[in-house]
TrEMBL record:
InterPro entries: Csp_YhjQ, YHJQ-like. Pfam families: Csp (PF03860). It comes from Clostridium magnum DSM 2767. This is Cysteine-rich protein YhjQ.
């Protein structure tokens, strides 16, 4: 994913991780809705949407160099960790892939917040 300008944002790696995570969460959400055990995935499905929205907001705040970007990224890391935990309980590929991407995003958010 590229940026709209030639100037690279200091947080670009984390922005891209958040964007990738949000997309993975929405893909997993859509796939989970079609799984036969949807009721067992209720908490996971809710967490997928919450995580995706946290990632989208973190990406936006970093893009504008918002004053609460670091604080929000700390919360985003927690949401990504929780989402990874939920997704990892299900063995299908979309959940496992999403869990991996959530863990990567959580690490990136923690790294950015400590800058």
């Amino acid at each position: 994913m590229g940026t709209a300008t030639m100037v690279r944002n200091n947080f670009q790696t984390c922005i891209e991780a958040c964007d990738k995570c949000a997309q993975a969460c929405y893909i997993c959400y859509d796939a989970c809705l079609n799984e036969p055990d949807l009721n067992a995935r209720k908490n996971c499905v809710k967490m997928l949407v919450e995580c995706a929205q946290m990632c989208e907001m973190s990406s936006a705040l970093m893009s504008m160099n918002g004053q609460f970007a670091k604080e929000h990224c700390n919360m985003c890391a927690r949401a990504c960790d929780a989402c990874a935990k939920e997704c990892s309980m299900f063995k299908d590929e979309h959940c496992q892939t999403c869990a991996d991407i959530c863990r990567m995003c959580a690490d990136e958010c923690r790294r950015m917040a400590s800058m």
